[in-house]
Amino acid sequence: MVLIKEREMEIPVIDFSELDGENRIKTMSLLDHACDKWGFFMVDNHGVDKELMEKVKKMINSHYEDHLKEKFYKSEMVKALSEGKTSDADWESSFFIWHKPTSNICKIPNISEELIKTMDEYVSQLHKFAERLSNLMCENLGLSQEYITNAFSGPEGPAFGTKVAKYPECPRPELMRGLREHTDAGGIILLLQDDQVPGLEFLKDGKWVPIPPSKNNTIFVNTGDQLEILSNGRYKSAVHRVMTVKDGCRLSIATFYNPAGDAVISPAPELLYPSGYQFQDYLKLYSTTKFGDKGSRFHTMKKRENGDSV
User: Fold this and answer.
1) Is 168 helix (H, G, I), strand (E, B) or coil?
2) Residue 238 in 3-state DSSP?
3) Which of 169, 224, 291, 297 could form a disulfide with 184 if both were Cys (CB 3.0 to 4.6 A apart)?
């Protein structure tokens, strides 16, 4: 794992090429630490074609310049800010593309055939990465390999969609957020972001951590609310925001590996604490296992709760 130091905070970077060699156990441990203690991290050597990622960014930037920029700067929000007025709006120009279970990319206004084809190729590769990452998370959580995928699935699998956003130059950054403070509602978020312009910040231990622009097309990952629920609070979603800047227009291509709309979400039973037992029964077990691992005691109490013989 590489560590990027930003204002005395170290952002985890997980090298996926280490998963197939002698450093697999160490890398899995570092991934678990990043999910457990941070809720956000970067992934390098992720398997997605980096030339394709560069092409996606270039084409999205061109689409914004040709079809969205003028409309943004003519908006009421921009007019109000020029008069020193603020609002609850976010200083962004964005649109959302659904990929799975049903694609709407052909319905995006003014989108070119070349951009459709390029995005489809990128999303196909990214979906494979999302599934691999979710399987690794399951392994670290002690769940069956495809537990997250199955839990997120409707009749046609999990949902998969991309928010494409540009955060334009802002003349009064002290008055506006690019995106206000929030956690993400979904599952696993995979961000392809600008390699020059900063702005993204995550809250950790009461401090805002600036996320540097992504060099060499690393993928920035954060976990959402549904993964926190499924993991029974172990992998928490993190509060984040986007700050505006006077110089530079930041690009954000955030793809969401989410539950299907009709997926029923609940904590994985394996991750729940035991419940419904009498304290005297726990004390009896404790008397013979006091100097052992408490996790084993919890597991034994859960088995008794479920009526299993121990």
Assistant:
1) coil
2) coil
3) 224
